[in-house]
Structures are given as C-alpha cells and as structure tokens.
Amino acid sequence: MTATTPDPATATTSTRSDSVTATTATTATTATTATTPDPTTGTTGTAAEDAAAGLVAPRPQLRRPRSRTYSLTVRALGPVALLALWWSSSATGLLTPDVLASPVQVIDAVGELWGNGQLPDALATSLTRSGIGLVIGLAVGLTLGITTGFTRLGDELLDSSLQTLRTIPFLSLVPLFMVWFGINETAKILLIAVATTFPMYVSTAGGVRNTDPKLVEAMRSFGLGRLAIVRQVVLPGALPSLLAGLRLSMTLSVIALIAAEEINATEGIGYLMSQAQSYARTDILAVCILVYGLLGLTADVLVRGLERVLMPWRTAGPGGGTR
C-alpha cells in the first residue's frame, strides 16, 4: 500500500483557519461576557467589574436655583447683625454718646437735618459734584482706553505715561489742585474726575485688546471703517470690562468726593461733617458716614442692574441659579 503524504500548503491553510476560528470564538465570548447583563444586578459585566473595584460614576455638582427672597435675606444678615451689635452696645453703655451716638439718636438727627432742609441741600450738592466729576472721568478714561487698546501708535505714545500717572494716589494731588485751581468747585470736580479716569482707562484698554482680531479683520473685509468697527464690534465685545471699570469708577467717585469736600467746603455732606466735628455731634457725624455708605451701595446696585439688562446671560450660575 502507498502512504498518503499531506500537502504542506493545505495543512498550513487549515492551521491558520483553525487559529482564526479560535480567536473569533474567544473574542465573541469576551464580548458576550462584557455586554451580557448580570441577572442579579441588571448591570453589564464591565459596570459590575467597576462596581466591584469600588469605582463610582462621576456626578456633576450643579447649583440649586435660589429664590430672590432667600438671596436678599442672606445679603441682609450682615447689616442687620452690625445694627443689632451697635444698638446693644449703646443700650448697655459700652458705647457712650461722646464716642458714637446710638441708632435712636442717629434717626433723630436725620429727622432734624431733613426737617430744616440741611440734609437735602447737602445731598444735592454732593451728588452734583460727584456726578459731574464721574462723567468727565468716564469720558476721558473711555476715550484713552479705546485709543491705546485699538491703535498701536496710541499704545506706544500714551500707555506708559498713563500707567505712571495711575500709580500716583489721587489724595496726594489735593494740595496741588488747591494751588492750581483754588478752593472753588473746579478743584473738587477735577479731583473726582482724576480719581475715576484710571479705573475706566485700564478696564477699557484691557477689554479692547482682548477683542478677537479675526473678527476685526472680517469686518474690515466687509468695508467697515475704524469708527464703525469700534462702535459695532469692539465696544460690544469689551462690554464686561467696561461695566467692571464703571463699577470701580463709581465707587471711587464716592471716595474722592469725601476727600474733595475737605477742601474748604461751604456746602455738601463734607461741610455738614466739618460742622458736626466742631460741635462734637457724633449723631450728625454718623448720619454723614451712613449717607456716604449708601451712596456707594446705590452706585453698586445701579451697575449690577445695568449688568442684568445688558448681559442677562451672566446672571445665571452653572446650575441655573441666579447670582
């Protein structure tokens, strides 16, 4: 009998086919094991292994929306606590009237000053000074910020000088302004204007520089001139920075008003403070300090309201709650 010799090519092909079949079967078994849900837990094999290994699926922390009443209540806790501490200290004798008048005495002083017309007149005078100085400072700061932020020549010519002037405390300019402009209203208004110019300038220049240059080039390709690009592209893009600068400038206008009204004022809140200091009226002094504080708080609230109107998307937190 003649022995049959196996064909080497056929044997090799058969071996490869068996290997491929075994690999496919192993892969299918693994996939079935990984995707077959566990009958006891209802999870897939991979999820069950993760759970057994102590791994937990991440859950994003979302802000819970808060009601406006709750937010206002929380914000009022600090002032109410300070008022309660002030009242209790005065009632127990820890604060004597020659150190600080009690809340009741301050309320009586408000009625006295409002009744004889001194407080309304002083408030109108101080608001006029602060308002005029603030408008001048905002206009100058906005113009300089756009010039240095949008043009390279303006940046090279003005920025270094303005940054140097910005580091000078505006209170150090009081004696110099008295020499230059005397003790009239001009010195007071210009001091407020100088104090409010630089916050607006820094914020505006930073916001203008952060404008997308590709967007500016696209607008130029459509034929828009420089003024149109500034009005329609640059300023809307820099709006968050502009509002931040406005907020700082309005706060500084109140601080500068206090300093300005120390320049031999004959009317205004500062004049009331000088008169009260001469007669040791701590109740009137407390009234004037509270008026300055309320002016600053009102300015802050106005800017916050402006932000809600112009940028409503910034009033909501990550979880949909209002800030």
Overview of this protein structure:
- With 323 residues, the protein is mostly helical.
- It has helices spanning 8-35, 45-52, 68-92, 103-115, 118-150, 152-166, 174-181, 185-209, 213-221, 226-237, 239-260, 269-278, 282-310.
- Helix 5 (118-150) packs parallel to helix 8 (185-209), helix 5 (118-150) crosses helix 12 (269-278) and helix 8 runs antiparallel to helix 11.
- The N and C termini lie far apart (98 Å).
- Mean pLDDT is 78; it is low at 1-43 and 316-322.
Query: How far from one another are the termini?
Result: 98 Å
Flag low-confidence runs: 1-43, 316-322
Helix and strand run:
HHHHHHHHHHHHH
What is the general shape? Answer: flat
Q: Determine the mean pLDDT.
A: 78
Quick recap:
With 323 residues, the chain is mainly α. Helix content is 73%, strand content 0%.
